[in-house]
Design a protein that fits this description.
Elements lengths: L17 H16 L4 E4 L5 E6 L3 E8 L3 E7 L1 E6 L2 E5 L3 E5 L3 E9 L6 E7 L2 H10 L14 E5 L2 H14 L2 H21 L4 H4 L8 H13 L7 H7 L4 H12 L3 H20 L3 H7 L5 H12 L3 H10 L1
Antiparallel strand pairs: 1-2, 2-9, 3-8, 4-7, 4-9, 5-6, 5-8, 7-10
């Protein structure tokens, strides 16, 4: 079997504009992030790279919370509720919340594979940015929009490149990368297309309490918690809290907690060397098989396979 080309060919001449130069660098960074066919999970939480070397159709899958896809090369079309959305290096793509969809890679060859990165945006960052943008009132769409595309302008492209570049250095990954992610989300929430996300929170009321609830959940990820427990902590009724949390995070409180627990379990296995059964118990699972099923659904591999891959890498 022929070996995949890990890098795109270097341009023969220097790109004429800043945007073209950034696009060339994004392509190189994405190729490094996706050295093999299919998905490549990154150590940075929520990030994965994609390489596809021929036109392909993907089965429907579920995205939890907002997700950003940036294409470095090739073109893809995703279908939501009968709506076809096409995106390529000139357009970023955002899924606004939990949704089932089908994706088709339209332009891809072995010499010029489809290359992209997908980032599951943490609701913590969305809530924090919404607080910073309080008072701005973008026009709301008439109905809930499950996904949209937006122009990949120079500012967005520069932000994406700086983020991927920071991820390649261990110190910058820890210190700089989280700051650039906040800027990336900030730019998304100020774009015209992002009104679809921001409309869900109206005038951003209760966003501060939702962010406080997220911090509480993260700090108590190993404790058994209910919606009532968290609502009581932020002095809200359970029903109102659940409604406002979902409006801001685009996911329910318990689904958000499940994702936190799975991410924490990943850290326990990869960073502290816990066995799968031990990690499952620490994050509140009574059944290891149930934990394995949920972990595979989120990370695309069983807990044992995932931990071995990162320990060996």
């Amino acid at each position: 079997m022929a070996q995949l080309l890990p890098y795109p060919p270097k341009p023969k001449t220097k790109p004429a504009t800043k945007q073209a130069w950034l696009a060339a660098e994004l392509l190189e960074l994405a190729a490094r992030g996706a050295p093999k066919e299919g998905d490549t999970e990154h150590a940075f939480p929520g990030l994965r790279f994609l390489r596809v070397s021929r036109p392909s159709t993907y089965r429907k899958w579920h995205a939890f919370g907002p997700m950003l896809i940036v294409v470095a090369q090739g073109r893809k079309v995703s279908t939501f509720r009968g709506l076809n959305l096409s995106y390529d290096p000139s357009r970023f793509f955002v899924v606004t919340g939990a949704a089932e969809f089908e994706g088709k890679v339209i332009e891809a060859t072995r010499e010029k594979p489809f290359l992209a990165f997908c980032y599951a945006i943490s609701p913590d960052i969305v809530a924090k940015t919404l607080l910073a943008l309080a008072g701005e009132t973008p026009e709301s769409p008439e109905e809930d929009v499950p996904a949209f595309v937006g122009a990949m302008d120079t500012a967005m492209l520069d932000c994406a490149v700086r983020w991927l570049r920071a991820l390649e250095d261990p110190v910058e990954r820890r210190v700089v990368a989280p700051l650039v992610v906040e800027e990336l989300v900030f730019r998304l929430l100020r774009s015209d297309a992002a009104a679809a996300i921001r409309s869900a929170v109206g005038q951003e009321r209760d966003t501060d309490k939702v962010q406080l609830a997220m911090q509480f959940l993260r700090a108590n990820v190993e404790r058994p918690l209910s919606v009532e427990d968290v609502a009581r902590h932020v002095a809200m009724s359970s029903s109102h809290f659940a409604h406002r949390f979902r409006a801001v995070a685009r996911v329910s409180p318990m689904r958000y907690l499940k994702q936190l627990r799975l991410e924490h379990a990943r850290t326990l296995m990869v960073g502290e060397g816990l066995r799968v059964s031990e990690a499952a118990v620490r994050v509140g699972y009574e059944s290891t098989s149930h934990f394995t099923r949920d972990f595979r659904r989120l990370f695309g591999a069983s807990p044992g396979e995932y931990a071995r891959r990162f320990r060996e890498g």
